[in-house]
Automatic annotation (TrEMBL), chains A, B:
Signal sequence, start to end: none
Protein name: TetR family transcriptional regulator
Example GO molecular function: transcription cis-regulatory region binding
Record organism: Actinoplanes nipponensis
DNA-binding region: 35-54
Entry annotated with the keyword DNA-binding: yes
SUPFAM superfamilies, alphabetized: Homeodomain-like (SSF46689), Tetracyclin repressor-like, C-terminal domain (SSF48498)
UniProt keyword list: DNA-binding
DNA sequence: CGCTGATGTAAACGCTTGCTGACTTAGTAT
DNA sequence: ATACTAAGTCAGCAAGCGTTTACATCAGCG
């Protein structure tokens, strides 16, 4: 059988260490303000391994995005009723995992300037907005479809903006608001934007 | 008397050229992704003048922020009724000036990492949120004051998120939505978040 | 053992960055 | 004209960047 003791040399393990560290840095500081040496230091790993495992800084960033895509696809299911949407957003913004993973949403706002990476990023955001529109009972097409999608994108904007204001600015009381404190305002926001009319 | 003909060497003029170019670049690409040579080229001015007039890249960024502060104080008055807030936001996001000045709001989301600059930035954002809370009929203190301020900050988050999604992503139909198309959803959002309850 | 491929390390490469100092040019007053 | 100052130019520096190359070390296997 293969070894059960943690290998001192574990390619997949250090790869993951790099991915985690990179995601934290990219999310909190943005792409170009983050240096590969920072990432390597935070991961406790040699700098050259970034290029070995991900070809380039760009490649590492893309890997972070696709990883975020997978995670988002797992946690946020497709057909959640509109009532549950505020819960999901509040959990994503201030859930118990927030310490370790500084809001996956932030990463989706960071651009590297690279075209391919930006396509991935925009693709995730688009599908996010479309799922939101579907939850709002949007018909796949029809007269009001565009309006509902627009409103879903605005709701997504709000979630992303909150993530940014909590992190990049330390705007109180928003920055310290817990999951439950965010829930009520988010419910009213979603209700006004996607349910009422 | 002093000369009335436009001087070919005009310190105040080139200073303003640099400020305008810098604001465009910083807003659209962020601080660290923007190089001083880019700014100088876009302004049609020699690179060294940035350091002459603003001491450093950081100084130029701070000057952009204080300039944005002045402009915001002029355009957005203190006591606008809540009904007018959606108009003001829609105008700021997609008004006729949007081509030249890529949404002042974007600049307020860009961090340079410098402490002083970030204090200025956060100060502008805070006062923005407080004006919003005041429009929502918030009493200066009292039991519900914190909640109203939190909701105002969430409304501000939405505006900032929209600016970001229109620019950094090119998310349709949000990115191409005009002032009038944004107005209705924003009215519903503000109504649900700050008026209703 | 000795060999081999995978994993990690160290040092440097070439390039871009923000910034500087010595210089030239334009405008004005004497 | 001459001298003086403000405004703009130019070449280059030191530092930091992403990346690469050459080397060391370990695991697995005959």
């Amino acid at each position: 059988m293969t070894t059960l003791t943690p290998r001192r040399r574990d390619a997949a393990g250090t790869r993951q260490l790099l991915l985690d560290a990179a995601r934290r840095r990219f999310a909190s500081q943005g792409y170009s303000a983050t240096t590969v040496r920072e990432i390597a230091d935070e991961a406790g790993v040699n700098v050259a391994l970034i290029n070995r495992y991900f070809s380039s800084k760009e490649g590492l960033f893309e890997a972070c995005l696709t990883g975020a895509d997978d995670e988002l696809g797992r946690t946020v299911s497709a057909d959640v009723p509109l009532d549950e949407v505020p819960h999901a957003i509040a959990r994503q913004l201030a859930g118990p995992h927030t310490g370790r993973h500084p809001s996956l949403l932030l990463l989706l706002l960071r651009s590297s300037g690279d075209e391919r990476a930006d396509e991935i990023r925009l693709g995730i955001l688009r599908s996010f907005a479309e799922r939101l529109a579907a939850s709002a009972g949007r018909p796949p097409d029809g007269p009001g479809a565009e309006q509902v999608l627009l409103r879903a994108q605005i709701a997504l904007s709000a979630a992303l903006g909150i993530a940014l204001l909590r992190s990049a600015a330390a705007m109180e009381p928003l920055a310290s608001a817990g999951e439950d404190e965010l829930l009520e305002p988010l419910q009213d926001l979603i209700a006004g934007l996607l349910a009422g009319g």
